[in-house]
Amino acid sequence: MPNCDLLIIGSGPAAWSCALTARQRDLSVVVAAAQSATGWLQKAERIDNYPGMPAVSGKEMLRIFRQQAVDAGAQIMDSLARQVQPLGDIYMTLCGNDIIESRAVVLAMGAARPKLLPGEDELIGQGVSWCGTCDGMFYRGKDVAVLSAWHGGIEEAEFLSRLCAKVDYYSMVKHDLPAEHPFTLHEGKPLELIRENGKITVKTESSADAYDGVFIFRPAVSPDSLLPGLALDGAFIPVDRRMATNLPRVYAAGDCTGAPLQIAKAVGEGNIAAISAAEDLR
Ligand SMILES: Cc1cc2nc3c(=O)[nH]c(=O)nc-3n(C[C@H](O)[C@H](O)[C@H](O)COP(=O)(O)OP(=O)(O)OC[C@H]3O[C@@H](n4cnc5c(N)ncnc54)[C@H](O)[C@@H]3O)c2cc1C
Fold it and tell me: Distance from the CA of 96 to the center of ligand 1, in angstroms?
């Protein structure tokens, strides 16, 4: 279990800027940097309004930012942060299948928000789960469905296949699958979840199959399900001028705090969040 002063969740300009400054303030830093398709900047062919890097592609900019943070001593975990829980004075974060213990947390997840299926929100914790590690044991010997929007669902489905009697795998968004796998592929695209007779039915255009449990995996987590109790203003996280949220030693930076959605603003907010965390931890 890696322990650190500061856990930064995200892998865009806000996160890398925050990591760099936090290291310069001598904090130990872990960055939870999901390798996923939700990183907006990856898609930018050419950026012309960031000082010092004329006509750079988004990919190249991110490579430089990341390398600079790594060179400064930030530790990277290439996985999705799935849940943050306060425990006394520390925060415990489930990151991939690891738990990271930190004294402070910076949220720098960008503005991408997962779109939930009809029925999903109401059924979370009642047969529907976003975490195989947390809830898999409840379905030992039972039939489950895995609904996945990215390659990260494959490892989860493999894990669940070792516990459950049957695992059906639905691709919500097209992604590569290994030639050999221990689960059954379901061709339909999930449209809705319904609870009936103690089971969860996954409806597609042409099928309706019932399961004891349904696990859903996406490359992003909405801020309020990531960190219960976090105040939101619509889709964004309200912060003060120190980038502090409503929770103690939790800061937010970048697109997730709202407009303008710009690289320079994300970098500036990441820098402020790191300085605030360093002051508060001193
Ligand atoms: C096509 C395009 C062109 C653009 N061009 C420009 C431009 O020219 N100039 C400009 O200033 N801005 C531009 N922007 C906007 C700019 O990309 C964003 O403002 C900027 O990237 C925001 O940085 P960020 O760090 O807040 O978030 P992001 O860059 O969105 O990074 C957030 C990262 O965190 C990761 N993440 C999310 N949730 C988790 C989690 N739970 N655990 C771990 N990781 C997670 C995501 O996968 C993502 O990679 C452009 C955007 C697009 C889409």
Answer: 21
